[in-house]
Amino acid sequence: MIDTVKVKFTGRLLAQLPPRRQVKFPNGVRFWHDGEGNCKADVELPKLLWGHNGRLLADQADLDRSIALFRESLASVVEFESWQWVLVDLCWQFRARAADVIRAHQWSTFAGIRNLPSLICGGKEISWWGAKSRRALKMYDKNLRARGEADGVLRVELRLAGPKLREKIDVSVGLNFGELYQIFRTEVVKLAPVTLPEPRKHSFADLAAGLPLEIRSQFLLGYRQGKTSRAVRGFERKIGSACLRRIGWNWSEKLPVGHPPELINVESKRRQTQGHFPCPLAVFRTILLIDPITLNSTNRLCLQGQTTMPPLAPTSRFRPI
Q: What is the pTM of this model?
């Protein structure tokens, strides 16, 4: 249910870490500080439990366990008491032919976001982005290897950050799984609703929705000739609604009111070891001396100790104590 989270807090560093540079821990936690006690950190919570985010946090117990590991990792390098949530990504996965659902939404609007969505690679991903990325909705194919609905997985992610997050939850207290699911459902069902066609006749939009994708594209090119942009957008939205009716997709039904829908997990392509990936205190007891030029382009810091990282290459310029 919850994927990426980001927090901010003040604390006292317990380890020698470079200021104003992002440091990535072996378990995926990313940490930053300004040298004056102001800190930020973010992580994909499922990765702390299973090593990848294809498996979803299914209940409050999973959420609490992942947050505890997050706190444990940060406590290894900084002493702090409390934090505030800055960003939360909510997500769920559905069994479907992802490309069909994505293409059907390509002309849909999302309440509160002025622009139409961005369609990527013709049907692999679609996204709506609000101002300064404080509110966003994204759908993409989580299992690109699938060839049919039986194996296809559509992932839907909702991002809330900054003021948009503070409007929904108290950012100073713990996360509540049930409350976050209701927020996710309320936002996703704001997608332009599907309206039923008039029973007296079929519209051109219904006919266009039944055409193969290539022929439908040619049909739209012909329709645009001599039409205003407003008329074209309205017709495209009607085609999108007709496509959703054809595949029987309705967000109000896909997301039940009282509880999350069926849990769909996607295992990582790289077979991960079972169990979580903690970041023990011993990891930071033998931190290497860092020279600024040794930090690579992604500002990742390699640490020596009990980690899951591979050994340093012979050409590394890290100098042990």
A: 0.74
Domain coverage including residue 282: 2-192+251-294
Q: Is residue 35 part of a domain?
A: yes
The helix, strand and coil proportions of the chain, stated in percent and rounded to the nearest 5, come to 30, 20, 50
Could you tell me if 63 and 89 lie in one domain?
yes
Find, among 189, 201, 242, 191, the residue nearest to 220 by Cα.
242
Tokens of 173: 């207290």
On whether both 63 and 31 belong to a single domain, the answer is yes
Beta bridge partners of 24: 30
The total of other beta-carbon atoms located within 10 Å of residue 297's CB is 5
| H-state helical runs in the chain | 45-50, 60-75, 98-104, 163-166, 177-188, 204-209, 213-224, 229-247, 251-254
Report how far residue 267's alpha carbon sits from residue 46's, in angstroms, rounded to the nearest whole number.
12
Say yes or no: 184 and 216 in one domain: no
Other Cβ atoms less than 10 A from the Cβ of 196: the count is 7
Backbone angles phi and psi of 94, in degrees to 5: -130, 145
151 in the same domain as 114: yes
H or E element at residue 249: none
Number of independent structural domains in the chain: 2
Position 106 scores a pLDDT of 82
pLDDT digits 0-9 by tens, 135-156? 999 999 998 765 555 578 999 9
- Calculate the alpha carbon distances from 285 to 12, 22, 60 in Å: 16, 19, 33
